[in-house]
Amino acid sequence: MDEKYDAIILGTGVSECVLSALLSVDGKKVLHMDRNDYYGADAASLNLTQLWARFREGQEPPKDIGRDRDYAIDLIPKFMMANGELTKMLVHTDVTRYLEFKQIAASYVYRDGRIAKVPATEMEAVRSSLMGLFEKRRAKKFFEFIQNWRDEDPATHQGQDLDGTPMTKIYDYFGLEAGTRDFIGHAMALHQDDAYLQRPARETYDRILLYTSSMARYGKSPYIYPLYGLGELPQGFARLSAIYGGTYMLDKQVDEIVVDAETGKFSGVRCGDETVHADMVIGDPSYFRAGVGEKKTPLVRETAKVVRAICFLKHPIPNTDNADSVQLIIPQNQVGRKHDIYVACLSSAQNICANGLYVAQVSTIVESSTPELELKPGLDLLGPIYEKFLQISPLEEPINSGADDKIFITRSLDSQSHFESLVDDVRDVWRRATDGKPLDLKKRAEDEGAQVQA
Description:
There is one protein chain. Among the domains are: 4-44 and 226-302 and 396-448, 3-Layer(bba) Sandwich (FAD/NAD(P)-binding domain), CATH 3.50.50.60; 119-220, Guanine Nucleotide Dissociation Inhibitor, domain 1, CATH 1.10.405.10. Helices cover 28% and strands 23% of the residues. The chain contains 13 helices and 19 strands. Strands 1, 2, 10, 11, 12, 13 and 19 form a seven-stranded mixed beta sheet that branches. The model is unreliable at 442-450 (pLDDT under 50). It comes from Tilletiopsis washingtonensis. One of its GO terms (biological process) is protein transport. InterPro entries: FAD/NAD-bd_sf (IPR036188), GDP_dissociation_inhibitor (IPR018203), RabGDI (IPR000806). Belongs to the Rab GDI family.
């Protein structure tokens, strides 16, 4: 390990593998390491043996639920927006050739004590139980306003200003009921809480357009998912990095982040008696909690905690029309919380578990000293639970930009149901690590008109 690298990457989460691939394609010499013997880091997809080893140490998985190779259970549940930034990134880098995707069958929202399907077509919207007849007319006018808006044409603005008006005022203008606002803001714009109501409406406008354009891509729902689990995503980007000369080392324990005593800048990474040197390091927060150098000042801070329950079911989620895969959102107001609760359900249709089983994951931001109880509204919708695994994870972010010490840290994967914030983080780290150079991936994807097949 005497070689000098342009960059060392620590952790094989999606963000780290995307950055590793982008740097390799950019001609940089990259060494990528992970303490685990599998890809994905804290967002890996585990087989049965790995899952039981993590949550039920010393116990064997039941013999009646299939073989190890039938399973790829995500530790962090997320779907991809069909027209989202991660999808565009996959297309642009051609990582799609390593992956297969399947569309999520349906999207649901919890409203007034029951589950309702988020309309996927105009006919479904007409029949939907989410709104009464008069409210449907008001909502129709709101969506026509969103679809018809053109920045350059004041005639489409109806006197509204998306950049200067809070979203709550736009809702007021169309006279939308509280339940409709919940549905639009949380099940379509996918906001996690109601703070968005006081922010400029442009943000929610953009999010609704992303949802509707993703829905238009394949119909049924706006979400897609890689067959064999989310762990396929980092592996796909790792293959791209390797093609361009990136070196990968799994099951490699990192003993020390080495910093030059005089300059305070990153120097290398020590593994046992060996130290490998590079100009910079990029890594997930778990590698930097104890700090670096002599001061050992932490380089990351915790912003929140997420509680997630992985549940094995022997049936689809009740009241979802026997769908083989579902996204179900419980808006905060519906259950008296500050943050939404997300339920994601997959099955053998996505090649993540054995036939006859379903894997439902319930997650939310922790708000109390009894995190598991906070999941109860979601768990209660699942019916009988065969097996349940609970985990509480910190959400962490870097304290510094990394410009001074050449240590660039990604953010933890958040509790949101999709990957859009991950792409924001990748762009941010890229900008910081390349002295302000923006990451622009849109041109090729748009020019070629390529898309993910689902």
